[in-house]
Design a protein that fits this description.
The protein is of the alpha/beta class. The protein has 2 domains: 5-243, Aspartate Aminotransferase, domain 2; 247-367, Aspartate Aminotransferase, domain 1, CATH 3.90.1150.10. It contains 11 helices and 12 strands. It has a 7-stranded mixed sheet with strand order 1-7-6-5-4-2-3. A 5-stranded mixed sheet has the order 8-9-12-11-10, with helices on one face. Helix 2 (54-67) packs parallel to helix 8 (233-265), helix 3 (77-88) packs across helix 4 and helix 3 packs across helix 7. Bound molecules: pyridoxal-5'-phosphate (PLP).
């Protein structure tokens, strides 16, 4: 059963319909409960708030529908990622991470996995296939990488890693299941920070793990129950609401990003633009093949750190903020966090503003720099 993105998007707001009884609320009720009414034999019922919650389950149902795989929700993207590490990796295992991906998994691995006897190695995303995967227990990829937007071929990584006996985990935060489908390309597990575009309103942290391997997902679920890294019901409720509009927001954001990236590349104040949808992106062809669209993140390099800060601060339709995927466009200079990028490199997250208005505000701020 391979559904199209349109079929998945159309069915999503109706998933609860078949279970509603006459007079039930159509929108998802928020269940705030640590305990449940539980006389006698507890088997088969909601038992305790660390084990199950009806609001998480409804959010997981939407995520599972989009991923076409079982999904387990977590209180943040990092909680999902560390659940994957700690439920799979054992002393003596080797883990491969991207050098240029989201930095917190690398810091976590150095700070906590090394001490458990797990060897952590890194490799740049664009050269991820170089050197093969022999001897690794887990290969963790992030494509396009955040913030540099380098790509690697997920299908090839999965094929070669599996031949070497490694599990493949893909962080799909930047693309969402509407933009890229790592499980369809062979990854064993997907992790994502639903904090970003999935929730989309910058008011909650959330994450999930999805997999079609029942043993892997059972182990992740057991990790959550025993470690207590459970999502809050209210955050789950917010993400459920966000998921209902993800497709329309994502489409607007990605279409606008295509327009904005092309115009930025032609602006005299902009030294370089990194966007997988531009023909000069070193992996443009892979992007068009592997991704359903090219995402809503754009890297742009201005002449100096000062110009970058001035652009971000003076553009009336850009929110100076870290993180991405909100309804508002936002941007930040990544070198302020120590990323290995030029001082004038800005990561911009294109939001839901009408694109011509957004470009008007951006080009006014850029014109003032020339
Ligand atoms: C933000 C982010 C995370 C971490 O998510 P949190 O919800 O902040 O824990 C992981 N991976 C990527 C690619 C991210 O952008």
């Amino acid at each position: 059963m391979t559904e199209t993105p349109e079929e998945r998007a159309a069915a999503l707001p109706h998933l609860r319909r078949g279970r509603l009884k006459k007079g039930d609320p159509v929108p998802l009720p928020l269940t705030m409960a640590s305990i449940y009414h539980l006389p006698g034999d507890p088997a088969g019922f909601s038992q305790y708030g660390r084990f199950d919650n009806q609001t998480w389950e409804a959010t997981e149902e939407l995520l599972a529908h989009l991923e076409d795989a079982e999904a387990v929700a977590f209180p943040s993207g990092m909680a999902a990622i560390t659940a994957v590490f700690l439920s799979v990796l054992k002393s003596g295992d080797r883990l491969l991470l991207p050098t240029d991906g989201y930095y917190t998994p690398r810091v976590f691995a150095e700070r906590f996995l090394n001490g458990l006897g797990i060897t952590v190695e890194t490799r740049p995303t664009a050269e991820f296939l170089e050197g093969g995967f022999a001897g690794y227990r887990m290969v963790f990829v992030e494509t396009p990488s955040n913030p540099g937007l380098a790509l690697c071929d997920l299908e090839k990584v999965a094929r070669e890693a599996h031949a070497a006996g490694a599990l493949v985990v893909a962080d799909n935060t930047t693309m969402t299941p509407y933009g890229q489908r790592p499980l369809d390309l062979g990854a064993d597990m997907v992790v994502a920070a639903d904090t970003k575009a999935t929730n989309g309103h910058s008011d909650a942290l959330f994450g999930h793990v999805a997999s079609r391997d029942p043993a892997l997902i059972a182990s992740v679920r057991e990790w959550r129950t025993l470690s207590g890294a459970i999502p809050g019901p209210f955050e789950a409720w917010l993400v459920h609401r966000g998921l209902e509009t993800l497709e329309v927001r994502f489409e607007r954001m990605c279409n606008s990003a295509e327009t904005i990236a092309e115009r930025l590349a032609g602006h005299p104040a902009v030294a370089a633009v990194s966007f997988p949808g531009l023909p000069h992106h070193p992996q443009h062809e892979l992007a068009r093949r592997q991704m359903l669209c090219c995402g809503f993140l754009i890297g742009l390099t201005l002449a100096s750190a000062e110009n970058a800060e001035r652009f971000i601060d003076t553009c009336s339709l850009i929110q100076p903020a870290t993180s991405f995927g909100g309804v508002h466009s936002s941007a930040e200079r990544r070198a302020r966090w120590g990323d290995a990028v030029a001082p004038g490199f800005v990561r911009m997250s294109v939001g839901c503003e009408p694109v011509e208005e957004l470009w008007k505000a951006m080009s006014a701020a850029l014109d003032a720099l020339v």
